[in-house]
Amino acid sequence: MRSKRYFNTTGFCRPEKHYMLDPLRNQSVIFDLIEKEQYFTIHAPRQTGKTTLLHVLANRINKEGQYISVAFSVESAGYRSITEETANFKIISSLYESCELFISKELWPKKPIADEKCSLQTYLNNWAGSQKKTIVLLLDEIDSLYDDVLVSVLRQLRNGFQGRPKYFPSTIALVGLRDVRDYKTKVRPSEASLGSGSPFNIKAESILLGTFTKEEITELYNQHTKDTGQIFSKEVVDRIYELTGGQPWLVNAVANEIVEKILKSDYTKKITLAHAEQAKENLIARRDTHLDSLIDKLKEERVKNIVSAIINGDSLVYDNFNDDLRYVIDLGIIRDINNDIVFANEIYGEIIPRVLNFQLQKNIREQGTTSWYIKPDGKLDMDKLLKSFQEFYRENSEMWLEKFDYKEAGPHLLLMAFLQRVINGGGRINREMAVGTGRTDLLIEFNGERFVLELKLKRLPSAKQKGLDQISRYLDTLGMTKGYLILFEIKHSTIVPWETRVKWETATCQNKEIIVVEM
Hints:
Blueprint: H1 28-35, E1 40-43, H2 50-64, E2 67-73, H3 84-102, H4 120-129, E3 134-140, H5 147-160, E4 171-176, E5 205-208, H6 214-228, H7 234-244, H8 248-262, H9 273-286, H10 289-297, H11 301-312, H12 323-330, E6 334-337, E7 340-343, H13 346-356, H14 358-363, H15 382-403, H16 410-423, E8 427-432, E9 440-446, E10 449-458, H17 463-478, E11 482-489, H18 498-501, E12 503-509, E13 512-518
């Protein structure tokens, strides 16, 4: 029999329809802030459960009966050409319409009328003054607002702060992708400094919604097991945690892909590691809305700088207040693990290079044919593959890198594109990339064999020796004795001609055999 519940990948979660964890399970601080009549922010990347949390929170507050609570979105006012007056009306209308979802009719504010000019502050004053209970207001998508409208809304909330709790909501939560201190990035540069009356200092606390832990993924998946008898084993959960990093949408999407798409909701079938890998590939190939919105961010200059640095292993001056870095962390694209800046999870680390080099892959023709590099025994001829890439790189790199959006990471992405075309025929590429390492490590698995490639930009004469030391240490961690060091010359070919750039030699370092491939 088909389960009544399923893994949700669209919209907010409802316990009667979806497998879900209580979004308030670790959020006692929220109830403490409400009791203290404070303003606070909740921020997290897209599709991490913010809206689900708001709905559960508002319903729980209303059920307990001490306060009136409504969650609503201000996204209808989230475009640049809107006037403050129109924005006020749209926001008030959104609040009014959302009341139906949370509270009984006698508690609603007055219905807004288009011809009557009314500020958000006045509307909230009037509503709060007409009620016996105090109001807890939850504003979603606050950072969808721009320029004067954003400043105006925040100032109105700040001005009303003094009237709490009788003539203004006693608690307001501002919910979005970023912390309130970062909203000023949505304001025109001329207005970025707002002085001592800044509306950006009204909150008492900033709450970041975290990713799922391995234990929480197990708890979520156990709900499916309880309903259907179909088990997600510990090794499968561990692998899904590696793939998703606990990102809530991905955790649900991988499970949904396995259960409904791959196994066709046949609960008698065993879930295996191979199913988890297939789900990853399917999600990347299909690029659902979640992954598309992630990819859209890659076009932003501030995102590009950080992503390029991860792919190349370049150093950044790490500063917790560095706005670009914090921005990309807040978007959920990257994370900081013990000061290692890496992609947030394995799926992102896989899809981002694939998307960035997609056009390159499409333009690699005959030389990207898998069968060219397969030995008679079915094994991969890595030497032949890399020699073919050297030739391809010499003939095509200058043309491609010149028009490439991610120029800094271009050489690495060009090789990854070439490898992807070939390896897709029967293997997989595991990437290890982090800011400040000075290289990118690729572990290629093909027909039972493993190959280690280290990619490094030749910025200084010492790059080769450093690369040899680095790949030797990496091979130690894998228990392997052979690897390939790929060195890319970054000076123009007129300065360092191709005749001296293209090299192939075998070196020994720390008892390892290293093939050094230069170009």
